[in-house]
Protein 1
Amino acid sequence: MNTRLPPEFFLRDVLDVAPELIGKKLVRCFPDGSIEKYMITEVEAYRGIEDLACHASKGRTPRTEVMFGEGGTVYVYLIYGQYWLLNLVTGSEGDASAVLIRCIEGFPGPGRVGRELQLDKSFYGESLITSQRIWVEDAEPVPEIRTSKRIGIEYSGEWADKLWRFYL
DNA sequence: AAGACGATCCTG
DNA sequence: AGGATCGTCTTT
């Protein structure tokens, strides 16, 4: 409890990591020094270059670069010119997988998560292992985790049918 | 250089 | 139902 998740937690298949993130505490130390801890309540797994819903399927670019690295880092990107969406990179170098944090307690919706956490471009590539402003801590296991199809990726064909959304 | 679009949210 | 808003990628 109150223990920062170690590298090993993230260095696994995204489909193992994603459901285990449900119930964990996302910790944010704000610029004013205040610290808030939010329970993670909804995530989605994006799994490598084959997953057409995963940005990494577009290839290795300045934007997707961090996903191709080793797990345990932050991947943020701006959507619709308005919201910074938070992702946690998982797996070994080259896996190009990440977990989208869709909801935290009190803040339903990936855009609202980024707004609450005051994310911006500077979080791109941040280490969840050494960062002093964002990380994840262990927590009591949650009783029941539900699954469904991922949201907003109808363009990805068969990949849209994967039950890779996990929530309380 | 210009155009299209998006893992969203808010308003009416 | 439609607009906001801009970085990234694609096309010229």
Protein 2
Amino acid sequence: MPKRAKESRQAKILDAAETAFADDGYNGASMRDIVRGAGVNLATVYYYFGSKNGLMEAVLKRRFGPLRQEHLEVLRQFEREAKGRPVSVEKILEAMLLPPLRLLAAPAAKRQAVTRLMGRIVTEPDAQTQEILHGQRSEVRAAFLKALRASLPKAPAADLQWRMEFVWGALAFILCNPRTIEVETHGACNPVDASKVLAEMVGFFSAGFRAVGISTLMVSVT
Amino acid sequence: MPKRAKESRQAKILDAAETAFADDGYNGASMRDIVRGAGVNLATVYYYFGSKNGLMEAVLKRRFGPLRQEHLEVLRQFEREAKGRPVSVEKILEAMLLPPLRLLAAPAAKRQAVTRLMGRIVTEPDAQTQEILHGQRSEVRAAFLKALRASLPKAPAADLQWRMEFVWGALAFILCNPRTIEVETHGACNPVDASKVLAEMVGFFSAGFRAVGISTLMVSVT
DNA sequence: GTCTATAAGGAGATAGAC
DNA sequence: GTCTATCTCCTTATAGAC
């Protein structure tokens, strides 16, 4: 059996699994759904991936590995372009948002599954899943936090961290259910138009970052 | 059997179900887990709620109904206080964020389940679940959008809608997994401190809203 | 490497006694 | 209203032929 055929077989399984996990979640998707979608035998999946958990792990690693790399590469590229000066908040935000949003511009068939899975995974408190991502996330977060601190040296560190969390949250929300957004806004917002989304997010969040520390209102929560 | 006992029985089931659904998701939580947590017989749940889906519906309605009411009430209160003038962006944000964040300040035992369930539900693309929330969400969104348009009359409507989606997304993220945030920020961010979170969010997002339309950068996404 | 067949158990839901 | 017992189906996973 040639190597190309093997790889295509595994890729088919990963594609089907990605779609199924994105649609129904880890527990909701069954191995039988997945093998039906991939057009392979049930035992084949266990031969290649060992277990349902192993399959999920492979699905996540295939996507989040390259994404992490791209995140770090784009940021480094902007740092090179800045030639020693701190990178602007706008550029940092672009580096945070562009790699994931680019997935929204992927071919239609795969697009929805990839992004929904990503958005979903971020808010899925399942311990095993979280652990798979922890290492990658920490590294990316640390890199962006460092860039933000250099760019906004006067801002308290905790404020920057909070704001970064808000950005990740908004991003996850967009990725997770673009359809809902389109429906709830009666078509005014079209999440598939990635460059528009990027522009909106950068404009919105950069203003927020630049205002850090300006107004600190306190409200009692009772 | 006195009415009080009945209610307490149903409430116990709802509490256990809320925790289970928040922990493991709809598909991951089993009816047997739930009855174990509630200390009741399996058949009791079917007697009161008919099916697993009916139980989920009841869980959601118990929380989202009052939340919707509170959202609208707080906004109306601020509108009264503004005496005909538009409500400030800061106040609108407070009205959006305070009711859900207040749940973070609830008694520790229930707190986590309620907020995680809410955060999770928002990003759960399950069709049935989404439908349960659609009506409530539309009404709340419309009310806040109207207030925002009155407060920022020069801003393009689509921009305001995008920005509102970002706020909901960030909120869902905080509610969903406060623990992850605490861990990933090495304790710098403490999501349980609701008034701090509110202040951070209002400060961040109000600056973003006020900057609407100022800078519209366009980046090619390729 | 790929298949069939099946093990072993958990799921949602219900019938019917009390 | 509450319980026991059970039905039926589907789940993950594996053993073993080819």
